Amino acid sequence: MNLEIKPLTPELAADFFDFFDNRAFTDHAExxxxxxxxxxxxxxxxxVINNMVKEGKDFRTILRNAAAEFINDGTLQGxxxxxxxxxxxxxxxxxxxxxxxxxxxRTRSTYVSESSCGRDKAVTCFxxxxxxxxxxxxxxxLERICNDAxxxxxxxxxxxxxxxxxxxxxxxxxxxxxxxxxxxxRVDERSGADFNEEQGVVIMRLAxx
Length: 209
Prior knowledge:
Layout: E1 3-7, H1 13-22, H2 43-54, H3 59-73, E2 78-83, E3 86-95, H4 106-114, E4 120-128, H5 137-151, E5 156-159, E6 162-163, H6 176-181, E7 185-190, E8 200-207
């Protein structure tokens, strides 16, 4: 493999969409329409999207258009992973304030968003093409994220692994052990019962200052 990591910019939007349209979820087509927009859509935008779907608009197209909008205005940022000229991965990372909603549970979203130690970078999603998983790519990207965040003056980088009641096939928030490899420490944990759901959340943090 000849892997290269590049920050997502509007100029690389075509590579982002090529990855999500053709390689990101070849093993689970039902996940392929997310375009990594979920954590950037607040409740009001969600209502608009739901109304559009009720009117017969295509859900995939709606989210694809939202992703294009978010990439252009800087809301959706992160790192693309290339094997030669082919995009094989994407990690969603941005200033913590860019995430209008961390997930569908308001209590959990508030808990995550209000946890802070200064100017924080948040890592929300790891998406690697199936045939490239398990080869250390997510770890390499996370190391790059932390290095760049330090150079950009951030106080810390945070990740939010979920605590599933049983094995979950695709832990897109990243498993806790991934963050531990790069030096993150657990700073808090809430059980699923705290959110009236099965899954809880762990806040992992790497202090940079």
